[in-house]
Amino acid sequence: MSDIGELLAAEAVRLQPAHHPEFADLVRTRAARQRRNRVITGAALIIALGAGAGSAMLGDQPRDADRPATVRAPAGSGPGSSVAVTGLLRRIGGPLGASPRGVSGTVFFRPDNGDVISAPASPDGTFSISVPAGRYLVTASTIPGSESPTCQADGPVIVPAAGLTGVQVNCHIR
Fold this sequence. Notes:
The protein is α+β, with helices and mostly antiparallel strands.
């Protein structure tokens, strides 16, 4: 019987994987992987914060109070070709069954060149602005004196040479 036991033990040794890492090696590998993941996460966070700060610095740059804002027309529009745009700044959401309603604030039209043209929205949410024909990102703020947008249109707004009515800028309540 001892021959069978020895045969089984030899076969078990032969069938074992060629390399078993020691427990200390496993612990070191896990610690190295955790350290690498922390470095990658930190680098990603720094990149994300840098990108956010860069876009914040480019988005709403402060202007001198004495110097008027320079607004350039989007490509394809000639001098003096501003057209009327009207719309509604409205609050959407809230309690179940609440319908959208107009709110006061400031509406911002941003053409592709990055300049900002703004107009006030009355207490019922209506606004009127004169802009050159072109493509705009339309946002708004309901906070008095703030240029940080909290609301926006559903997509880019294309203003034709004939003007545009019915632009809706939505402030979603969460």
